[in-house]
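note to self — DONT lose this again. spent like an hour looking for the file last time. sequence + predicted structure for the chain T wanted, 382 res
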Amino acid sequence: MTNNAEQTTVLIVGAGPSGLATAACLHQLSIPYIILEREDCIASIFNKYSYNRLHLHLQKQYCELPHLPFPSNFPTYVPRKDFLTYLNNYASCFNINPRFNNLVKFAKFEEGKWKVEVKVGGDGNNNIWYEGRFLVVATGENTEPFVPEVEGLSEFKGEVIHSTEYKSGEKYENKNVLVVGAGNSGMEIALDLANYGAKTSIVIRSPVHVVSRWSVNIGLMLQKSLSLHLVDSLLVLVNNIMYGDLTKYGIQRPKEGPFSGLVRIGKYPIIDMGTTEKIKSGEIQIFPALKSIKGGGDEVVFENGKSYQFDVILFATGFKRSTHLWLKVGDHGLNQDGLPKAMFPNHWKGDNGLYLVGLARHGLYGAAMDAQNIAQHIFKLI
């Protein structure tokens, strides 16, 4: 039933950085909106599901949201705690008041407007409806924690956690910890574990680019005047000189360049925070893909046939997006991975007043651009 639906011009789903940026841009243009958030806070990934030592990997000028720069006294690479302070101030500055604990169950375009069904609170059947002319999906790239199926995992006798549950390596001192997943989170968590004295290993099953933080920021600047291929070539050359041949440690470099891979398939390069040095020194061991758990839950078997014992398996295996399960748009809008079907730079605009913000795998910088494009486009239509 939608007879009693609350009406607005724009419905925003998600109060992470993408949703906040969109709300601020709409506020600046005096466009009414309602922002719905399933958690009990803004930016829940940073607030509740990130490790303590997290810093934004790019320089702060690439990470600020529209209409409010970072304070000048913030460090170049903003730590998680400061970023949360910035986001809270951002919400206050633009009078952004999300409807928390509002889990979107269903959204469809019907009779010229978007109708959204929301479950309020954790229990019961307290469902309400909202209606708006426009719908902005701002649920982000990271939605549902993903743990791959591993034969025998349920029998593992040690601790199994996802990276969203990890805060620091303090309680893992002297424990044998296997990190599964060699993205930026997995590599930095491995570093954190090693720094706290854990006997740390990491699964790296596919080729990855390992690049220094400063070289990535230079690459972003060079993209404004050089071709992507040339920037990639320079990055690979510089980082080969910096890190040397990493194949002898079990790290293969992809044939496709670091930025080209990001643009084409959304594969981020590994921004090294010190993990590589610990791999070279032997403080962090590298293993191939995880195959199974055997020996009554004692042995972790890898695809090379070798097996070892661990106290903890930590899955830094990313997320699955669930947007396509509740967003009913037929064959348009999102693919099965919950990402836009339209290619960059036209990814942010769907049909019938549907917009997608922060889903182009271009980080906070891309989300900020999306938010401004969306607000300006809506402003021209009303």
